[in-house]
Amino acid sequence: MLQIEPAFLQYPDWKGHSFLREEVAKFLSHYCCSPKPLKPKNVVVMNGCGSLFSALAATLCDPEGIRPSGHHRICLVSCLISLGFFIFSPRLDVRPFQLTVEKLENSLKEAKKEGLNIKALILLNPHNPLGEVYSSEEMISFLEFAKMHKLHVIVDEIYMLSVFNETDTFHSVLSLDGFPDPQRTHIMWGVSKDFAMAGMRVGMVYSENRDLVQALDQLGCFHGVPGPTQYQMAQLLRDRDWLNSEFLPENRRRLREAHSFMTEELKKQDIPFLHRSAGFFIWADLSKYLREKTFAEELSLWRCFLKHKVLLSCGQAFSCVSPGWFRIIFTDQLHKLKLGLSIAHFHFSSCILVVSPMEWDKM
């Protein structure tokens, strides 16, 4: 694991060293239950999924199409909309926040009315922040929608190994016998979530589109992964005996335990939440602590928590259309969760008694 070959200290293949791409292909073939072995030539490795999103946006949203050129502009994920990506905002109807083809159709029509040229659709499965795990049938319907409208699809499966309820099963799109539009379907995964290794900065995308792979190769010099890190990642990915017998079972046990603790505490406070079994977060409705159902009040409540060292993510950060929803991260040590809850509980009670915004901000 600590071995450093001289070749690791030189410029690599910007798509990732061949030995790592081979291990990634084997790893994804196994854990995504691919019907046939995935091909290493379709794998691109970069320094994190954020960099992959940036590079994909720079290529897929080029007004002249995909070009394997080194002169694309680099963008941040926050700039995806301006580069032509459509970010779906969940709606509160039928099944709360559930994504459907009908909602995609309506949102695409709205975007076109605003003069937006939509190039791609981003699908998160399991979902962040909802923790929703979409079925194969649902994912196929989304892919069919994208094919109908000639949209590229980026499927982000970065939480695929963090489904902790044994009764729920995650089905990767790579487990399908085929894609409705293989040349426009691109699958992402990384080690920052499932392996709790965000600091290693390793993300990967699998695509059968050779033009896209070549274009990403040209951008790789801006997003490369150090050679020693690539070697360590290859060693980790190939150690499936340890992953299957020790790491993954223990990780899922800890996720279940922390999730159970947090949901029981929310029930005691009579706080509604989505009960899902994937990811690191719970989508909770704290709207009863808002004096008015507005996003301004939601932001004030968020600031109140932040001032007292409790960090939650408010719904408007995720384009939620209903004020009062927050994402709560539960993946931490139990004593830290208890401390955060005790602080939050005190200020829940205090915030209800506040009369003016000025007093609220002083809390």
TrEMBL record:
GO molecular-function terms, A-Z: pyridoxal phosphate binding; transaminase activity
PROSITE patterns registered for this protein in UniProt: AA_TRANSFER_CLASS_1
Residues of the Aminotransferase class I/classII large domain: 7-330
Coiled-coil annotated residue ranges, if any: 94-121
GO annotation, biological process: amino acid metabolic process
Pfam families referenced in this protein's UniProt entry, alphabetically: Aminotran_1_2 (PF00155)
InterPro entries documented for this protein: Aminotransferase_I/II_large, Ethylene_sulfur-biosynth, NHTrfase_class1_PyrdxlP-BS, PyrdxlP-dep_Trfase, PyrdxlP-dep_Trfase_major, PyrdxlP-dep_Trfase_small
CDD domains: AAT_like
UniProt keyword list: Coiled coil, Pyridoxal phosphate
UniProt superkingdom: Eukaryota
Transmembrane intervals: none
Recorded family membership: Belongs to the class-I pyridoxal-phosphate-dependent aminotransferase family.
Protein name: Aminotransferase class I/classII large domain-containing protein
Species this chain originates from: Cyprinus carpio
